[in-house]
Amino acid sequence: MSTIFGIPPQALFGQLLLGLINGSFYALLSLGLAVIFGMLNVINFAHGALYMLGAFVAWLLLTMAGIGYWWALLLAPLVVGAFGVLLEKTLLSRLYKLDHLYGLLLTFGLALIVEGVFRHFYGVSGQPYPIPDLLRGGQNLGFMFLPNYRGWVVVASLVVCLATWYAIERTKLGAYLRAATENPVLVQAFGINVPLMITATYGFGVALAGLAGVLAAPIYQVSPLMGSNLIIVVFAVVVIGGMGSILGAVLTGYGLGLLEGLTKVFYPEASNIVVFVIMAVVLLIKPAGLFGRER
Amino acid sequence: MIARLLAGAALAALAVGSAQAQQGKVSGDVVKIGVLNDRSGLYADLGGEGSVVAVRMAVEEVGGKILGKSIEVVAADHQNKPDIGSNLSREWIDRDGVDVIVDVPNSGVALAVQEVTREKKKIFLMQGPATSRLTGDACSPTGFHWAYDTRALAVGTGQAIVKEGGKSWFFLTADYAFGHQLETDTAAQVKKAGGAVVGAVRAPLNTADFSSFLLQAQSSGAQVIGLANAGGDTITSIKQASEFGLTQSGQQKLAGLLIFLSDVHALGLQVAQDLVLTTGFYWDMDDEKRAWSEKYKAKTGKMPTMVQAGSYSSVKHYLKAIEAAGTDDGATVSAKMKEMSVNDMFAKNGKILPNGRMVHDMYLARVKKPSESKGPWDYYEIIRTIPGDEAFATLAESGCKLPG
């Protein structure tokens, strides 16, 4: 059998596909971060905690109220989004005039608090969340066994990423948003409610994190630590893609997922640092990130 | 000037003298027990606050006092970082007068703390860490390894699975001190029993997605995939192995080499059923264990893991030794502990080897099917008692070289 760098091609395809699945989560999360940074100039460190919150809301809905996966897919992002709106209205909105650093510290503190509360009540081993019946089982692709649920994650994340990109880059509302980031005073003078738009954007950004949380619930344990395990990588993805660049965040998310997957085959010990090595190299060569523009 | 120097020297000599005179009593007029473990990360449920509760139970049983002095329990989080662990234990011993350090899961951190306690001649009661090196080449005259170790896990689970016909093995190993040792020890037992190791992959600690590693294990064609990891990593790998249909095909079998009761609880019996594992303690074995565990559960809402039960047992034994020795001096108490046999709800006729290994019976268990379980925490069926002498290495085998 022919091999590529000593690995049978079938195995390689399998690993690439897995990389794509993990990339889907990176893309969904970094998309939310990029939207928030692009519009609000806030580095939202609470993103990982809100992703965890999404998964927990789904789990609580199932265990407390018997509400299943599909409703959770809709309800959990709404709950998380509403929580985000509350945060923005009461806390974040006071910091826009100050340096980025303050928003970062506030959201980081919030993340620690939210995580700490859940850890206190639920421990760290996590709670099991079943895969919905419709998506149980899997397909034998010849080169690997693909669980149906993982396939669904890739499709769902692609659709959401594309829709978001389209809404911001190609619709009138998106045009207002982009204009409001460039010059809020002028846009407000045209009679558009800029503060409301900013609140809604933050709510939408964190709702994306909540959605990713629900998607992740059946794959990983629903655990208070799930956010902090992922968030650092996601930040690296956003930095590599270029802060605030939506397309950059999505493409880098998938790309790094693939690259990480390959690392797991060729040099598994390095799989959790490869993203950061790339980040360092990109920052050296292109400080604004691959798709960012210099300001 | 010379007179002053002389006076200083005399004072210093006096201080040394009085410190020696105090050796017959309790240092600082308090016995301070420091529980050092992972209180927030992937190993927090198997030890964590539960170990602190268990230690407090041992202290309460002697009335909170020993040799007329009070006993104090302190706790800290080492965050699975060896540098934080060794700094904390230094601070505890030097500044706060801590006499004994308990638990310390994560073999990497335990190896670092062992260096500190050896240097300071303080007692170290290890429950959470697994690596057999702690009573092997890294042994210490004041270090005690209590609940289990990688060698016992290898003997228990490794041999049992080879006997069932699982001849070829592939290891999925946590990439640090513990995983490497567990892999080495298990591979040795597998080969001894006539099996073979076809490959291994090293996954970083705290990996979120194991599917890539599992697929590599699958394509290796090995009959058994040995999970040389622990806590959150074990949970994730077992869950994802079931998702990717590794075990359903019937050609491959998972061997969780280190599985705690808290892991099974988190996985649920649906996913964990039929796993074979080795444990040093299970709550539902006899009346004594049940009574203690129920008391523990009333405080924490959970049944204890072997780490938590072992924390209780070791502190109980430590306090008995202080009572018998009439002092809390590390070296003296350590010698006393090794003279006395361990008899409590955790172990019967447990004996402590000169290298600090507490030799007691281990148990091979099978995780029940959901239909066999009578309710929460009714998870294991004990299928074999492994005599302590078979489970643990002898002093000669351990490779421990103690001075004198």
TrEMBL record, chain A:
GO molecular function: transmembrane transporter activity
Pfam hit, one: BPD_transp_2
Keywords noted in UniProt: Amino-acid transport, Cell membrane, Membrane, Transmembrane, Transmembrane helix, Transport
Gene Ontology CC terms: plasma membrane
Keyword Secreted: no
Record's bilayer topology term: Multi-pass membrane protein
GO biological process: amino acid transport
Subcellular location: Cell membrane
Main location: membrane
Segments crossing the lipid bilayer: 12-35, 42-62, 68-88, 100-122, 149-168, 200-220, 232-254, 266-285
Similarity annotation: Belongs to the binding-protein-dependent transport system permease family. LivHM subfamily.
Name of this chain's protein: Branched-chain amino acid ABC transporter permease
Organism (species): Azospirillum brasilense
